[in-house]
Amino acid sequence: MGAKLFNNPFFSLFSMSNTEDQLISNNVLSLLYALLAAIGIAIYLSWGIMFGVWWDVGLYAITAVLVSFGIIGFLLYSIKD
């Protein structure tokens, strides 16, 4: 049962079996974190354009969380050993 779980393609992103797999998974994860930051900026801009509200605490809260996790995650996964 355990061997089938780790042969799943989803878990292969997080495998540390060899350096090439780890490099690919780091590239995929850094891309996902960069996408998270881009989504945060897109939400801020689209909300501001659609509703004309640029000074909203709730909008800042969502944008800050998405962009900060995106930038920190991207930086952590883009560091070369």
Describe what this molecule looks like in 3D.
The chain has 81 residues and is mostly helical. The protein has a domain at 33-81. Helix content is 79%, strand content 0%. It is built from four helices and no strands. Helix 3 packs antiparallel against helix 4. The mean pLDDT is 82.
Describe the SSE topology.
Elements: H1 2-6, H2 9-12, H3 19-51, H4 57-78
Helix pairs in contact: 3-4
Name a few traits of the molecule.
single chain, 81 residues, mainly alpha
Entry summary:
The protein has 81 residues and is an all-alpha fold. The protein has a domain at 33-81.
Spans of at least 5 consecutive residues whose pLDDT stays below 50 are none
| Alpha-beta content class | mainly alpha
Radius of gyration: 17 Å
Proportion of strand residues: under 5%
Proportion in helices: over 70%
Head-to-tail CA distance between termini = 34 Å
Average of pLDDT: 82
Overall geometry comes to elongated
Element order: H for helix, E for strand: HHHH
Number of helices: 4
For the biggest sheet, the summary is:
none
